[in-house]
């Protein structure tokens, strides 16, 4: 059991990319990071790397599409720490690759939703009792500018011509979850906010991780910066129900 002065932060999909970068930065600020990963080998490797950098980190096996594993993870966190301070729903995939909506199979759209939306909901619901035990607490949902309906419907936006129905609608749904959960959980001292990392040089969507970044693609530290900022707000800060990126507030 941890004493409640310790900020305990669970990050899903934290074995690499933006999740790992976020874990490293928050760990270096003194948070105790729980590295959620579906792959045990990659998760444990990430923990070793973080420990070598002086970060307090533990591995939690967590495939966000596996309800039994989510329950086991919540039970383990309850036994080992007793509470959670911050949940960062970061795990995400993009299985569609800009096919016209008229040709995109719902099988593909469902894959996007299973991880990005239903996985996020299942993890959030399972962790709420632990967040209540650790309140004031925070949930940060990693959304995307691709999921902004305001940008997608604005002819002056560069997202107007973007066409990825599965990924975009799953991330728009993440934003809706942020709005609804932020209202329900306000009375429990739990804030809920969405963050857009922006186009970032990770292995996301099958991109080779070591490929040179094209113009306009950010490095991972920049992609993680707004998540780190939101997770570093003092516990008890009342900011809730927002959708932000490094440059400021985004339209839903
Ligand atoms: N990179 C961008 O340009 C960009 C832009 C906007 C938003 N985002 C969002 O940022 C988040 C992080 O993406 P990233 O760029 O860091 O991509 P990434 O390097 O591909 O990392 C994605 C993480 O999600 C994990 N994951 C996938 N399916 C999972 C599942 N079923 N259960 C648990 N974990 C699962 C992956 O685990 P494995 O290692 O097992 O695959 C990996 O750890 C995503 O939500 C993404 O939508 C990214």
From TrEMBL:
Pfam families assigned: adh_short (PF00106)
Protein name (record): SDR family oxidoreductase
Record key words, sorted: NADP, Oxidoreductase
Gene3D superfamilies for the chain: NAD(P)-binding Rossmann-like Domain (3.40.50.720)
Superkingdom of the organism of origin: Bacteria
Family: Belongs to the short-chain dehydrogenases/reductases (SDR) family.
The species this protein was found in: Secundilactobacillus hailunensis
Lineage: Bacteria, Bacillati, Bacillota, Bacilli, Lactobacillales
Residues of the signal peptide: none
Keyword NADP among record annotations: yes
């Amino acid at each position: 059991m941890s004493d409640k002065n310790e900020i305990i932060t669970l990050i899903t999909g934290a074995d690499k990319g933006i999740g790992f970068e976020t874990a490293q930065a928050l760990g270096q600020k003194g948070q105790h990071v729980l590295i959620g990963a579906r792959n045990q080998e990659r998760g444990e490797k990430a923990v070793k790397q973080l420990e070598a950098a002086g970060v307090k980190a533990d591995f939690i096996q967590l495939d966000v599409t596996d309800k039994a594993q989510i329950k086991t993870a919540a039970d383990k966190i309850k036994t080992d720490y007793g509470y959670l301070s911050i949940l960062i729903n970061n795990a995400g995939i993009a299985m569609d690759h800009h096919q016209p909506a008229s040709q995109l199979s719902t099988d593909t759209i469902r894959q996007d939703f299973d991880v990005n939306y239903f996985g996020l909901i299942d993890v959030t619901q399972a962790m709420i009792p632990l967040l209540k035990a650790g309140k004031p607490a925070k949930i940060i949902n990693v959304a995307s500018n691709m999921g902004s309906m305001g940008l997608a419907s604005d002819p002056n936006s560069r997202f107007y011509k973007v066409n990825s129905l599965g990924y975009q609608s799953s991330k728009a749904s993440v934003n809706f979850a942020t709005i609804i959960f932020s209202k329900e959980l306000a009375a429990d001292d739990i804030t809920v906010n969405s963050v857009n990392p922006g186009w970032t040089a990770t292995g996301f969507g099958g991109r080779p991780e070591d490929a040179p970044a094209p113009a306009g693609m950010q490095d991972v530290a920049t992609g993680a910066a707004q998540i780190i900022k939101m997770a570093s707000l003092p516990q008890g800060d009342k900011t809730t129900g927002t959708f932000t990126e490094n440059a400021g507030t985004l339209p839903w």
